[in-house]
Amino acid sequence: MQTKVAIIGYGNIGKAVEQAVESAEDMQLCGIFHHNDNLDAIEADVAVLCTPTREVPVYAEKLLLRGVCTVDSFDIHGQIYDLRQRLTPFACQHKAVSVIAAGWDPGSDSVVRALLQAIAPKGITYTNFGPGRSMGHTVAAKAIPGVKDALSMTIPLGTGIHRRMVYVELEEGASFSTVERLLLEDDYFAHDETHVVQVDSIDVLNNVAHGVNLTRSGVSGCTHNQRFEFNMAINNPALTGQVLVAVARAAMRMQKEERYGAFTMIEIPPIYLLPGDEEKLIRSLV
Amino acid sequence: MQTKVAIIGYGNIGKAVEQAVESAEDMQLCGIFHHNDNLDAIEADVAVLCTPTREVPVYAEKLLLRGVCTVDSFDIHGQIYDLRQRLTPFACQHKAVSVIAAGWDPGSDSVVRALLQAIAPKGITYTNFGPGRSMGHTVAAKAIPGVKDALSMTIPLGTGIHRRMVYVELEEGASFSTVERLLLEDDYFAHDETHVVQVDSIDVLNNVAHGVNLTRSGVSGCTHNQRFEFNMAINNPALTGQVLVAVARAAMRMQKEERYGAFTMIEIPPIYLLPGDEEKLIRSLV
Asked: Could you read off the pLDDT of A188-213 as tens digits, one per residue?
């Protein structure tokens, strides 16, 4: 029997989830709810929350209260554990499962970080992002007076240090030097190497490519110099959408096993993310 | 309270496990049993099997029968699922947990393969091994008449294709051309590009370095060209020993949760591999 999936929010991520659900044989799309739609009509096993990240907690609570499992890609790193603690009682009381912070970072990168820390317990992991668009920094740049449109690219410099390349399209009559100064003083940019570049059109620069270079040099037992590296170069919303569909599948499996609650991806057996026969999966992947 | 760990078998891997146990604050070494020792005296929560891989099933059964959890790095890829099925009833009946095939391949690489298949479901994963010593091929080379000692190195050529560089030290009077012909005809070598090199001493070539380059190009939703790569350059027994200690910890956790049975690493939540406070782990890794 197919899992009935609802999508809440229909921006870049919502559209990508739709495509991932449609290409998953074990899932069936049962509704797309735009932001602010009434959710009373929802008849889903699991809802994929593709709303702005700050609205995730409220939507998740509402749905868990009705026994609908939820998955999200909540991405405010400092608040993930708190969200887990907030949603756990809702999920447990209503025999549901919520998988939170399930995109690629936080998300699949978190799984790689946990694995590498387990197999080389002492050492340093560096997560280097990009090149790719930073949503948060782009929004901050757009908020500067005189900026008509902006794009903030994250450029990895290694050891977790990033350069910000900020492209700005100015409003008529705005002064580039003033915009540049205000932007460099903004708390979002003041701590990183930041370059501001004036362009005629942001539209022609836009691209949803992103990437990660995650490295760890560590110690296994008492043996130093164990080296690990994980790289990806991906379409950002497509990957996020696919991760959400994978954790929706895992949420169903956890619910079936009566393991109710809110979980991050590092708390889920990786095989639960995959469709198909357990024996075949183990034979082909292990 | 510390987990009491016994080590069964004291070769390269057993010694590496000893080091990994000694550097783990939550574990306590309670005995090292050499191959063929009597195991009746064993008083452990979990036994780490570092015997030759073919002897793993019998040792695991014996220990599970007595309620002792077991972990191993059984590495015959085609027989892992069968071992899981064989050990499951022993583990379940005696309220124990067995984690099998837990080295780096099978093992941590399997987790990466499962994760990448989940987040880009269509596509091809290539696992490229080395450069590093292949145990199986080295044993096969040593069995050729006229060979005093040998070392077979696995060299990755990409797309899962490997070259074998076989170094041989000959017995006095042996003919290199005969040894080379017999070796190239051997089933272990007949299917790969193989080069045989005569050397004066194998001893000076030996090195436990190994590596992996694992790649996947796949499709997330309907978006192609999602690229992933996992690399490592490691000390082979040290990494295997550390993985075994991590899964020993996970076995204890599964037993505590009354989830008895035999499991591969892709069936275990990654956070179970790690010591320490759950909140701290989630806050630092997710």
From this structure: 999 999 999 999 999 999 999 999 99
pLDDT tier for residue B273 given thresholds of 50, 70 and 90: very high
Using a CB-CB cut-off of 8 Å, the residues of chain B touching A110 are 285-286
Backbone phi, then psi, for B153, in 5-degree steps?
Answer: -95, 140
Report yes or no: A125 and A159 within 8 Å, Cβ to Cβ: no
The alpha carbon of residue B57 is apart from the nearest alpha carbon of chain A, in Å, by: 17
Q: Report how far apart, in Å, the C-alpha atoms of A229 and of each of B35, B72, B246 are.
A: 36, 25, 20
| Facing residue for A106 by CB, picked from B220, B232, B286 | B286
CB contact under 8 A, A19 and B235: no
Query: Is the CB of A286 less than 8 angstroms away from the CB of B266?
Result: yes
Chain B contact set for A274 (CB, 8 A)? 114, 117-118
- Provide the terminal-to-terminal Cα distance of chain A, rounded to the nearest Å: 27
Reading phi first (left if > 0) and then psi (alpha if -120 to 50, else beta), residue B258 is in left
pLDDT of residue A1: 87
Are residues B271 and A114, on separate chains, in Cβ contact within 8 Å?
yes
CA distance B64 to A46: 39
How many residue contacts between A and B have a Cβ separation below 8 Å?
228
Are B115 and A104 within 8 A, CB to CB? Answer: no
| Whether B221 and A20 lie within 8 Å, measured CB to CB | yes
What superfamily would CATH give domain B122-220? Dihydrodipicolinate Reductase; domain 2 (3.30.360.10)
Pick B242's closest partner by Cβ from A111, A220, A281: A220
Q: How many CA atoms lie within 13 A of B163 on its CB side?
A: 9
Which residue, among B53, B46, B3, B34, has the nearest Cα to B240 in the 3D structure? B53
Average model confidence (pLDDT) for chain A? 97
- Give burial (CB, 10 Å; 0-12/13-18/19+) of A257: exposed
Q: What is the pLDDT of residues B106-165, one digit of tens each?
A: 999 999 999 999 999 999 999 999 999 998 899 999 999 999 999 999 999 999 999 999
What architecture (CATH level 2) is domain B3-106+237-278? 3-Layer(aba) Sandwich (3.40)
User: What distance in Å separates the CA atoms of residue B180 and residue B182, rounded to the nearest whole number?
Assistant: 6
Q: Which residues of A touch B81 (CB under 8 A)?
A: 279, 282-283, 286
Domain residue extents for chain B: 3-106+237-278, 122-220
Percentage of chain A exceeding pLDDT 70: 100
Q: Which two tokens stand for residue B180?
A: 């080379």
User: Do A226 and B241 count as a contact with CB atoms less than 8 A apart?
Assistant: no
Structure tokens at B97: 């947990």
Q: Is B226–A243 a contact, with Cβ atoms under 8 angstroms apart?
A: no
